[in-house]
Design goal:
The protein has three helices and six strands, in the order αββββαββα. The chain has 136 residues and is of the alpha+beta class.
């Protein structure tokens, strides 16, 4: 079983509605849209991504990505249009991956999105505070 078959099984067994497109599948998990991309010639590799507006200046979003990346298996990065993308990839030994493992990966991805959002909101609050705009 390759990762495409793994995801088809997972989505069906767990009751997720999904939209299959060329190269991947889109579905919702805990209220967030997740794109699962498959790669030709890589039967055991997939990539889950969540994308959303960073809502802060690019330099602040990049700092937050750098802060969150070293301690995580998730990768936080900005697309060219300043959309934040959080990704997680790869399942080795796809036939042996139980649904619980896929669910844990998705929960990790969502947690990464919430962590970014929390830090972003802290920075937005800081940047909107009058004292942050004063120069000594």
């Amino acid at each position: 079983m390759n990762v495409k078959e793994l995801m088809k099984r997972f989505l069906e067994e767990e009751g997720f509605k999904s939209e299959w497109e060329e190269g991947g599948v889109l579905f919702k998990f805990q209220g967030l849209k997740i794109w699962c991309e498959f790669y030709e010639n890589h039967d055991n590799y997939l990539e889950f991504t969540i994308s959303f507006s960073s809502e802060v200046p690019r330099c602040v979003a990049l700092d937050l990505c750098n802060e969150l990346n070293p301690s995580s298996v998730l990768k936080h990065y900005l697309a060219d249009d300043d959309t934040l993308v959080i990704s997680f990839g790869e399942f080795k030994e796809a036939p042996d991956v139980p649904n619980e493992t896929v669910m844990e990966a998705l929960e990790l991805l969502v947690h990464g999105a919430y962590r970014f959002s929390e830090r972003r909101d802290e920075m937005k609050s800081y940047l909107s505070h009058p004292a942050s705009k004063t120069v000594n």
